[in-house]
Design brief:
Elements (H helix, E strand, L loop, with lengths): L25 E9 L5 E10 L2 H8 L3 E9 L4 E7 L3 E7 L5 E11 L3 E4 L13 E3 L4 E4 L3 E5 L11 E5 L8 E4 L5 E5 L1 H10 L3 H30 L3 H12 L9 H8 L3 H8 L9
Parallel strand pairs: 11-13
Antiparallel strand pairs: 1-2, 2-5, 3-4, 3-6, 6-9, 6-10, 7-8, 12-13
């Protein structure tokens, strides 16, 4: 089963940009995360469905949500069926690599007779429809996510602290011409940070200072000259994480993008720094 926006059906199918229904939506958001032990990959999908008549068919067992999952690099293909609009399933991590495509449908699991919905386009000319087992009631555009071991690490993993003897004090520089973004520090600053970053409190400060600034600048670099940087490992991971989080780094505010990729870094200050109190002076 494949999504085809140009395919004509003899019955109404709820699809994006197709006027079989005059109003209503069937939209799917997909996220893939690593399990705590990194041995499993967990697919999470949320279905937004606004046509109550289709919801009733699902609730009565006459239809179900079907997610077709395929991975070209590993030749993996599977289907998840569910009566729920929030779906979660774990897979062995080795089954996925690279681009994973999730194609969402709602299909009839039993014959459906005399289906009526006031949102169906009047151009069909009839008020009642029948669906045989396996026929599609709704289809959404395929969702693509990228799977890579590095993607399950914090975005800060694309950064590397390196010692630069030409720097003094606490001046620092960024270098993007390597597979990891290099935060170049003076020997003094590098030693101080290496000693300090073992605590959560100090990590929270680093994330909101050095790391945050580096990610913002990396986004600007990609915007200005994507062709130059796109083949570096840090750039691929950043672009893939943006894709998986539905962020267009080319147009979205760089500061907001960095906050989302770093998982709301200011909240870390609240948790590990501000909570400890401190001098007002």
């Amino acid at each position: 089963m494949r999504f085809d926006s140009q395919k004509a059906f003899p019955y109404p199918v709820l699809r994006p940009d197709i006027d079989d229904y005059e109003s209503g939506e069937f939209q799917t958001t997909v996220d893939i995360v690593s399990s705590g032990d990194n041995k499993k990959i967990v697919l999470k999908a949320h279905i937004a469905l606004s046509i109550d008549e289709i919801k009733k068919e699902i609730a009565s067992g006459n239809a179900c949500v079907s997610l077709i999952i395929s991975c070209r690099e590993t030749y993996f293909r599977d289907a998840i069926t569910s009566k729920k609009l929030d779906i979660e399933k774990a897979f062995t991590s080795g089954l996925f690599k690279g681009e994973v495509v999730v194609s969402p449908f709602i299909v009839a699991t039993k014959p459906i007779k005399k289906f009526r919905c006031r949102d169906i386009n009047s151009e069909f000319g009839v008020k009642e429809f029948s669906f045989e087992v396996g026929e599609v009631l709704a289809a959404d555009e395929p969702r693509m996510v990228f799977i890579d071991r590095e993607l399950f690490k914090p975005i800060s993993s694309i950064l590397q602290l390196v010692k630069q003897d030409s720097l003094v004090g606490f001046d620092w520089r960024l270098r993007f011409e390597e597979n990891k973004i290099q935060l170049q520090l003076s020997p003094e600053a590098k030693d101080e940070i290496d000693r300090a970053r073992n605590s959560r409190r100090n990590k929270a400060v680093l994330i909101n200072s050095l790391y945050f600034a580096a990610i913002v600048e990396a986004i600007h670099k990609l915007r200005e000259d994507e062709e130059t940087f796109a083949d570096f490992r840090w750039a691929k991971i950043l672009m893939q994480q943006c894709h998986n989080n539905s962020i267009d780094y080319r147009t979205h505010d760089a500061c907001e993008t960095a906050q989302r990729l770093l998982k709301s870094p200011l909240s870390l200050l609240k948790q590990y720094v501000f909570a400890d109190g401190g001098d007002d002076q």
